[in-house]
Amino acid sequence: MPMRSCSSRDRCPPESGLPKSLALRDDELRSIAERLGREPSQTELHAFDAQWSEHCSYKSSRHLLKALPTKGEAVVLGPGEDSGILHLGEWNGERYGIVIAHESHNHPSQVVPFEGAATGIGGIVRDIVCMGAEVIAVADPLRFGRIDDPLSHQRYVAQGVVDGISAYGNAIGVPNIAGDVYFDERFDDNCLVNVVAIGLVKESEIIHSFAPPNADGWDIVLVGKATDASGFGGASFSSVTLDAADEDANKGAVQVPDPFLKNVLMRASYRVFALLRERGITVGFKDLGAGGIMGCSAEICSSGGFGADIQLRSVNVALDGLPPEVIAVGETQERLLWVLPPELTPEVLRIYNDEYTLPQIARNARAAAIGTVTARQQYVLRDGERTVMDVPIDFLTGSIRDELPYERPEAAPPPPGRAFETGVQLDELLERVLAHHDVCSREPLYRRYDGVVRGRTVLARGEADAGVIAPVPGAPFAMALSVDGNPRMSKLDPHLAAQHAVYEAVRNVVAVGGRPIGLTDCLNFGNPRKIDHYSELVAAIDGLGIASRAFATPFVSGNVSLYNESKNGNAIPASPIIACVGAVDDIAQIVTLPFKRSGSVLYLLGTPQRALGGSVLIDVLGESEPGLPSIDYDEAIAHHGLLLRAAKAGLLRSAHDISDGGLAVTLCEMAFGALGRGRAAIGVQLDDPFQWTHGGVGDIEALFGEAGGHVVEVAGADIEAFEALADGVAGVHEIGVTIDRPVVAIGPQAFDLHWLHGIWSQSLAQVYV
Amino acid sequence: MARRIAVLIFPGTNSETETLALLRDCGGEAELVHWSRAESLAAYDAYVLPGGFAYEDRIRAGAIPAHDPMMDYVIEGAQRGKLVLGICNGAQILLEAGLVPGTGAARRPTAAFTHNASRKFVCAHVYVKLATAPSRSPITAALAEGTLLPAWAAHGQGRLAASQMHLREIERGAHLAFVYARADGSIDPAATPNGSALGCAGLLNREGNVLAIMPHPERDAWNFNHPDRREGRNMLAVSGGAPLFASFVAGVQRS
User: Fold this and answer.
1) Top-level class of domain B4-254
2) Is the pLDDT reported for residue A44 higher than 80?
3) Chain B, 134-173: which have a CB under 8 Å from a chain A CB?
C-alpha cells in the first residue's frame, strides 16, 4: 500500500527491447521475471510499469517522507489512504472530520492546460468522496512561467489552466476558497498545477480504501465512465521529463474531463453512503487514479490482506477491441471502485444505473460488478477465458524502494548584514512592487471560480488570508484553509524556504482566527536521478519537518511530483507547496483583512530583519541578494497565540499577514479591502519606521522585508485590553493608525490610495481579460 | 395543511443544498425531487429550480432541461397558477421553457439568459433591486417597495438577450422584476456584471406567479455569509437575500 495517494512521476528511458512507452528499468524487469519464474505477459508488463512508477510507489521519496510528523490530537486519519482526516468539531453529539487531499497535475497541464487542470480537480475530488465524505471546498496553488508575451505558450498555459479549473470546479458545485499563484521563468517549460480538496465526514461514517476483514468472496464493483484509451500510460507519462518531440504521444496520456458525469457520480455516491448508514455495513471504496482498474483493485484488496480475480470483459468500455492492458491500466477519468457484500450489490447498482441514470448521463457509463475479492493472495486478470495476469498481489503492490544518492547542500550564504539602500524613490518602489505579478490582485483569476456554491462560505477569496467555510448547518465552528509556497525563496535556499512555506500557511490561517490543526504537502521537484535536484528534495523535506514540529501541526496527507524540469534539464525552483487547515471555534470571532474604521491603532506582530533575499523588492530592482530571513519559531508561536487570544476576545478589527512585498503591501491591501463597500475610504498613517525599528533594520527592510508576521487593527477603546494580552510578548510594535483620508502615508510621505489601488488591481487584469 | 415546495434536481444541478436549506429556514416545507421521480412532482404546490449546469449547458444554458419530463409538471403547474422560482440555471431553464417572460408559447422562448458580454464565467458579489411594485407578484408581495437584496452572481450565461420587440414587451408588461444596483441602491450600468439588457437580473411572467432570477440570494442569506453582517449578531440567523425566499414561502402558503 503506498504511503500516500498516487500521483507523481519518475522514470528512466527504457534500455532494452520494451515498448517505448514502458519505463521499467532492466533490474526491475529481471526481478519480475525471477519472482514469476517466467517472462511477464504484455498486461503484466504494463501493470508493473504503472505500479512501480514513482507515481504509485513513491519509491524514491517514501523513506524520506517517513521523517515528517504525522501524529497530533486532531489527527483522525494520517497518511496512508487516499486522504487524511482532521477532527474539526463536535455538534449534536456527532464528531465532524475534515478530509483533505493534495495533488498535482503538472505535466498534463503543461501539454493541454484546460484538460490537464480540469482533470486535476476531477481526480482529487474522488480522493475525498471515496472516504465517505461530501466535497465542500477546493483550492488551487498555481506556478506559471513568464506571461508577458501574449502569443507565448506560457500565456496559453496560464489562461487555459484557469479556464479548466473554472469549468470543472464550477460544474461539480464545489466552492474554490483558497489558492495562490506565482510567475517565474523557471516554470516556462513546466508549470505547476496543484489542487487541494476538502471534504466533510462524520467520524463514525468514514469509509476506508481497503477491503474489510470479512470481504472474502465479496464483489468488486466498478462505477463511472466507460473505460477508453485516454490516459493510457498516464503514470509513466507523469514520470518522465516533458519532451516537445513527444507532444502528440503525451496528449494521448492526458485524461478527458467530464464534470457533468462527475456531478452526478458524486451525488449518486452520497446516496449510497445513506444506504450504507441505514444498513450499518462496512465496505471498501477507492478512487481510480494511477494504474487504472489494476492499480485501484490491487491496492484495495491487498491492503485488506486479500487477492482479486477480475474479468476484464465485464468492464464497460467506450469502444470495442481495446487490448486487455489498456482496459487494465488506462486512466480514464470519473471512475470509482467499491468492494461490496454480494447481497448489497444489486441495490448499489440500482442507485447508480437507475436512480441516477448513469448510462443516460454519459455514453455507456454505469456501475457493474467486474470481479471478486479472493482469500488467495494472487492478483488475477482474465480476458474471457484467457488469463492475462496472475501474480502475487503483495509483489505487485509491495513497497519497492530506490536509494538514490544525494548530498547535503552547502549552507546558503547568509544575508550581508548591512542596511539595504537603493537610489530608487519610495513612490516608484511602491508602484513596481504592487504591480509585480506575485503581489498584485488575484481577483482576475478567482472571479472565474465559483467561491460560494453550497452557501456555506464565510470568507471567499480576497476577503482574508485564508478561505473559511462553516460546513455543518447550525454549528458555530468553521474550517479555515490556506495554501502557500514561495518559489523566489526556494531558489535561494530550499531548506529554509520549505520552513517558510509552512510558516506562511500557518500564519494565514491564524490571521483569520483559526487554530492550525494539520498540514498537507505537495512536493514538486526536479529529476530525482540528478543529484542536485534530489538533494533539494531531501533538504526541503527536512525543512518541512522542522517547521511542522515547531508549530506542532502534523502532516496528514500529501503528494510527490518529480521530474519537473525544463527542456535543457534545469529543475523548476524547489516547490514544496503546503496547505494548512485551521479550526475556527466560533464564526463570530473571525477576523478579516480590510481596515474597518479610521482612528484605529495598528500593531506589527513581528520583527523585521536585515535579509531581503528572495523578496519581491530585490526582484523588481533586478538585483540579487543572498540570505532569506530566518524564522524565530518561539516568537512566531507567541505572536500566533496573542493573535488568537485577541481575536477570541473580540479585540481585532482586522488582521493581515506580511508576505510577498512586505509590510508596505500588507498595509496597502488592508486599505484596498475597505474600498468599494459603499463607505468612505480608510487610509493609513505609518510612523516613520525608525520610530519602531529603533534602527535595528533600515527603512527598506522594515517596509519591504518578507520575514513574516502580522499587522492587526485595534480600536482605540481596546488598546488597554490588547496591550494587557501582549504583555511580555516580544516583538509587538505600535506602528501607526488608520485615518479618514484616502492615502497610504509612510512617515512624511503620502501616496494616493486610489492610485496605488489602480496599479495593484490592473496588473493581472490585462492577462485575464 | 402546509403547502409543499419541490426543489428540482436535474442531472447537473449543483445548488440544491443551499436552496433547500434557505427555504426551510424561511419556514417552507421543501423537499428535493430527483429527475428519476418526475411523476411525483404533480403532488407539490410550488416549484423551485436551483442553480447548476443542468445537462451540461449543452446548446445553451437551460435549453435541454427545458425539455426534461420534469418540466411538463412545472409548465402545467405554472399554467394552473402554482408559484415557480428559478435561480441562476433554474432561471435559464424557465426562460428556455417559455414560462418567463411568457410572451410566447410554452417551450418557445422569446428571451434568453445567454453568454456574458465577457464570454467568461464570473463570480462576483452584487446587489439587485426590486424593479416592480411588490404586489405585482405573489412571490414578491412581502417585500418592501424598491427592496435591495445582496446576492452572488455566479454564471457564464447571465446576460438577458432578446429582440428589440421582445425587450419592449418586457418593459411594457412590467416583466422586469430585478435590476442590478450598487450597494447604496443606485442604478449604475457598471453594477451589471454581465452586460445584461435593461440591467436585468430577474424577470416575471405576465401572471406574476413565475420568477426567474440570475444571481443567488441564497448564497448571501445567513449573517455568516457577509462581512458587513458579522459584528455582534447571531451568525446563523437568516438575513441578506433571505427576504425573497421568505416572501416566496409566504406566497406559497397563501396560494
Assistant:
1) alpha beta
2) yes
3) 152, 154, 156
Instruction: Give pLDDT, residue A237.
Output: 60
Identify which of A172, A478, A588 has the shortest CB distance to residue B14: A172
The three cell numbers of residue B30 are 421543501
DSSP string, A477-505: -EEEEEEE--HHHHHH-HHHHHHHHHHHH
Q: What's this model's pTM, rounded to 2 decimal places?
A: 0.94
Residues of A whose CB is below 8 A from B222: 455
Q: Classify the C-alpha dihedral B119-B124-B130-B131 as positive or negative.
A: negative
When the pLDDT of each residue in chain A is averaged and rounded to a whole number, the result is: 92
Residue A475 pLDDT exceeds 80: yes
Determine, for residues A592 and B235 on separate chains, whether the beta-carbon distance falls below 8 Å: no
Give the closest residue to A519 by CA, choosing from A586, A582, A584, A590: A582
User: How many other CB atoms are there within 10 angstroms of residue A607's CB atom?
Assistant: 21
Grade residue A769 by pLDDT with cuts at 50, 70 and 90: confident
Look at residue A716 and tell me if it is in a domain: yes
Q: Return the CATH number at A665.
A: 3.90.650.10
Tell whether A131 is covered by a domain.
no
Any domain includes A201: no
pLDDT, tens only, B78-122: 999 999 999 999 999 999 999 999 988 889 999 999 999 999 999
CA-to-CA distance for A635 and A522, rounded, in angstroms?
A: 27
Distance from CA of B48 to the nearest CA of A (A): 16
Mapped onto helix, strand or coil, the DSSP state of residue A289 is coil
Q: Where do the domains of chain B lie?
A: 4-254
DSSP string across B93-113: HHHHTT-SS--S-TT--S-EE
Which of A448, A457, A476 is nearest residue B225 as measured by Cβ atoms?
A457
CB atoms within 10 A of CB A282: 14
Give the pLDDT confidence of A685-734 residue by residue, as tens digits: 999 999 999 989 999 999 999 999 999 999 999 999 999 999 999 999 99
**Chain A residues close to B18, C-beta within 8 Å:** 453-456
Flag whether A735 is in a domain: yes
What number of other Cβ atoms are within 10 A of residue A229's Cβ?
A: 16
Q: Which ipTM score applies to this complex? A: 0.96
* Host domain of residue A660: 591-769
Within an 8 Å CB–CB cutoff, is residue B225 touching chain A? yes
Q: Which three cell numbers stand for residue A264?
A: 452526478
